[in-house]
Structures are given as C-alpha cells and as structure tokens.
Automatic annotation (TrEMBL):
<dbReference type="InterPro" id="IPR013563">
    <property type="entry name" value="Oligopep_ABC_C"/>
</dbReference>
<dbReference type="GO" id="GO:0055085">
    <property type="term" value="P:transmembrane transport"/>
</dbReference>
<keyword id="KW-0677">Repeat</keyword>
<dbReference type="Pfam" id="PF08352">
    <property type="entry name" value="oligo_HPY"/>
</dbReference>
<comment type="subunit">
    <text>The complex is composed of two ATP-binding proteins (GsiA), two transmembrane proteins (GsiC and GsiD) and a solute-binding protein (GsiB).</text>
</comment>
<keyword id="KW-1003">Cell membrane</keyword>
<comment type="similarity">
    <text>Belongs to the ABC transporter superfamily. Glutathione importer (TC 3.A.1.5.11) family.</text>
</comment>
<dbReference type="InterPro" id="IPR003439">
    <property type="entry name" value="ABC_transporter-like_ATP-bd"/>
</dbReference>
<feature type="domain" description="ABC transporter">
    <location>
        <begin position="9"/>
        <end position="263"/>
    </location>
</feature>
<keyword id="KW-0813">Transport</keyword>
<keyword id="KW-0067">ATP-binding</keyword>
<dbReference type="InterPro" id="IPR003593">
    <property type="entry name" value="AAA+_ATPase"/>
</dbReference>
<protein>
    <recommendedName>
        <fullName>Glutathione import ATP-binding protein GsiA</fullName>
        <ecNumber>7.4.2.10</ecNumber>
    </recommendedName>
</protein>
<dbReference type="GO" id="GO:0005524">
    <property type="term" value="F:ATP binding"/>
</dbReference>
<keyword id="KW-0997">Cell inner membrane</keyword>
<dbReference type="InterPro" id="IPR050319">
    <property type="entry name" value="ABC_transp_ATP-bind"/>
</dbReference>
<keyword id="KW-0547">Nucleotide-binding</keyword>
Amino acid sequence: MLDNAIASIENLRVEFETKSGTVVGVEDVSFKVNSGETVCIVGESGSGKSVSSLSLMRLVEFGGGKIAGGTLIFDRKEGEDIDLAATDQELMRTIRGNEIGMIFQEPMTALNPVFTVGRQLTEGLRLHKKLSKAEAEARALELLREVRIPEPERRLVQYPHELSGGMRQRVVIAMAMACEPRLLIADEPTTALDVTIQAEILALMDRLKRETGTAVMFITHDMAVVAQMADRVIVMFRGKKVEEGTVEEIFENPQHNYTKALLAAVPKLGEMKGTDVPSPMKLFGHENQKIEEIPGTNEPILTVSNLTTRFPVQGGLLRRTVAHVHAVEDLSFTVNKGQTLSLVGESGCGKSTAGRSILRLVEPQSGHVEFDCCDVMSLNQKDLHRVRQDMQMIFQDPFASLNPQMVLMDQVAEPMRNYGTHKGSELQDRVAMLFDRVELPRSFMKRFPHELSGGQRQRIAIARALALNPKLIVADEAVSALDVSVQAQVLNLMMELQAELDLSYLFISHDMAVVERVSHHVGVMYLGRIVEIGPRREVFENPQHPYTQALMKAVPIADPRQRKSEKDLNFKPIPSPIHPIGYEPAPSEYREISPGHKILITDSGY
C-alpha cells in the first residue's frame, strides 16, 4: 500500500433499491485518509457524504443499500490490508467499534434507551478489549471525564433520556473513542451541540487524534468546523466528489461553483455589525431576494414574567422526591409582534424547557405567561387547545416529531383537521401551498419521513407549524441539524414568512452566528436564568456578562488560519442545577446598561 493511508476508498458506487427503481447514492468516489490526518467530507444533506462513511463500516447494507462497485481498503492494526467491501460480516463485527469507531449524528438513535450509559460504555470495552467489569467501569469514568461531562459518576447510572442532547452526544463520542480505534468516522458529531461544547469537542478530537495517531474522517456541512479541524477537504455534491484540496486551498481558492456557494452560505459572527434588524443570508445564485428589512413592532405579543420550572428528582425505595432540577429559574422577557427574540445558551441551560413551559407542554411551578392578552397559565385544557392554534412549535429533532407511519401530506394536514379549519379540496390546496412555501416538491406529499434528508424533514416540520396561521412560533433549535446551505434557505424562509405574515418567533438556539442573523432581541441563558438580555446589536457588539463574552469567543471562525486551540477555551464546568428540597434561590436582579440592555447581578455561578 502506498504512503501511510489507513483507509483508501476507490471508485465507490452505492445503490439503493426503491419503489421507483434503483437510486445511486454515491458514484465513482475515491479518496484516502492517512494516519494522524483529518479529512473533512463536506456537502449538503443528500450529497452522499454519510453514505460513503456507512459503506466503510458496511452499515449501508442495513439501510437498504448495496455496494455496487469499488474497493474499500483498510489497513488493520496487524499491518494487513483488507478490502472491507468483500469482508464477511463476522470479521466486520470485530473491526467495527474496535478498529473503526463511529460517532453518529443522532445521539438518541445511537444509544440504546433501555440500558444505562455505563452499561453501553463498558460493553465495547469488555467485548473488544476483554477488560473485567471493574476495569471497564474505571475506563468508562475516565472517558466521561475526557469528554467533560459534569458529574460523570452519576451519569454512568443514568439512562440516555435523562441527559440533554449535548451530553448524549458526548457519551456517543466517549463510546467511539473507548477502544482507541485506528480510524474514527465522525458523522456530523457537533451539529446539535452548543458552540462551547462544540469548541471543546473539536479540540478534544484534535488532541486525541494527535496523541493516538488516529485518522479521522469528519463528515460535516459546517464550514467553520471544517476550517477548525481539517487537513484536507473533499467536497461532495449529488453523490459525486466535485473538489478536493488542502483546507487552505479550499477556503482561499475554491474552484467549483458549489464550493463557492457553500462558503457563501456560512453565517459569520460580526457580519451584522451596525445593523438593528435581521437580514437574510445572501445565497449563491439567489440574487432576487424578496425581503429587505423586518422592523416588526414594539407591541408585545408574549410577556413572560418570573417563570420557574423545576423537575423532581426521585430516590430511595419509595421513589420520593429528594431534590429538584432547577431547569428554569425566575425568567422574564417579552416578544414583540412581528419580531424575533432569541434565547441562546449551552445545552442544559434550560432554554428548551423555557420554550415548552410557555406552551405548557411542561407545567411550570410558578410565573405568568401572557399571550395576546390571555393568561396562558390559568387556562383549562379546552381553552389551552384553542390558544395553541396561535402558538406553534418547531422541534429540534424533526424525525422524532414526525409520525413514521403517516405520509407527509397527512402530517401537514393533521393540525387543520384537528382544528377543522380546512376541508376537502381546500385542505389539499393549502397543503400543496405549504409544500411550495417551504420549497419542497409536491411529489414529496406521498412520501414517508424516512425517505427524506434531515433538512427536508425540518421543512415539513415548519410547514406543519404554519398550517394553522399561528401568531407565534417557538422554534426550538429548528436549524441546528441542517447543512449551511439548507440552513441559510430555511432561515431566509422563516424571515420571509415573518415579513409577510407578521409572525413572531421565540427562537431557541445555541448558534451565535445564526442568532445574530435572525434576532431583534437576544437573551443569553445560563443555568436556568437569563444572564444578559437586550437588543441584538447591543448584546453582540457590547457583551457585558463574562458568560456572554465566553460564548462569543467559542464561535468557530470559517478561516483555517484562525484556529482555536484548547487553551483559548477556558470554560468553567457547569455547576449542577440540582438542589435539595427547601432550597430557595435568590430572585433574578438586573442592572440596566443601556435602554433595554440588562445583565444579571444575582450570582449565577459564572
């Protein structure tokens, strides 16, 4: 074998059998991954980048695909080269997890819901490394510390559903690194993570790569992550490789139009300096953008005051409540009509719980939520059902929020059937119009969720949220799992809809660059409280709270010459939000810096 390539893919072709015939997922793709090198594969969802990695693991066959051509040469630890395309599944089982580690994009589907985190972490170690139970548990604890999970001892006995998205993703990374594989395939490993954790995990993977000489095949659509991580970049488009080069070449001298389009779609922090209102992304090839400015109004549509949500922690034989998780603590803010307020913060800071509490999808302990002149907290179920017609939610994970057994047309029509707003041909027309609005072909109406890519599923979720013409949409990480180009289109779509329909958004996100794009006002959350809130321009151009400043610092820059090292990222570990019964935290007090721009002066632990 030439040079020190750990994996060498040559002329790979993968086909999928569907009802409408054979679909080619990847066609004639060739590239190498060398020892100690990070190769980033970039492209939109549906470009075939995940298919390439699943072929290398021979997992593509479990998803209805087959390797129809090409070779996948892998250099094993013992120094022998094998063609993975022709290896039997028995040997593949030994290689998977032990010699090739994989980090999947959806941590909830990669973890088994019925086993504890500790059991899942130790399983591979005991199987591949033949460790005893005690040794495996000690190593599992060490791995959780390496991926910086707070209170790792407690996490080992918890189940995946008890962890936040960011924590689950860190568990998956710990599992992939457990056996110190020769090749680590990371499929969008940081898509659903906050900037701070993303920065840490990228630095962590980089450090592990340097220490162990592991080769990394990093699949992503985030060009800022590519700039931070890659040695070489492969750009994929519609199942083919369209460009390959070193990270500097790709960023400083892209040749293919598609690469240029990808780079143009990256929201960059600081691009909005000096402007007060959100403005759409400039999309490559979309010169005729419809919206100019979205001023909105100063008339409140949603007023939240002193909202507090806590979850009981049960323990002991009788499962008594022994403590509370203080998920949201004394939260107050206002969303204006036709404007966007963004809540931004790390996973586990309570921003999703805040969004759900406002819609009463979880019941808050105390506080007031006034929406369009009615008190949401005092409504009975019947009235709440009526009010929810005007407040809709877009969830973070579109796959979990869509019904796998219903065709998409029925899913988008369902809210209208529930509320009886449209019937018969009128309903059909409205669904078709919604598909047009979210720029999905009408032929997709007969498809099922699993037949769509992540970005397309998220558009269905948006279409469904729009079905009832709501006044307020709570978008919980609505674009966090999308590719940059799709993300830019979806954000533009959301802004267009805001301008046309006078929509208000409560936009929950951890992506600072996206928040800067879409917001009129920004609230930064930490440990259940807002630590800084104000007009977007004030918060971004003059951040006052140390936590806001740390968040800004962690945002990756889409420039390979401005990489961040681990020593730049000095985040404090997040303290536990669990407090014993009877603990009463101090109320949130703020100091006003300029009109509307306030920072928390109560001790938030940061």
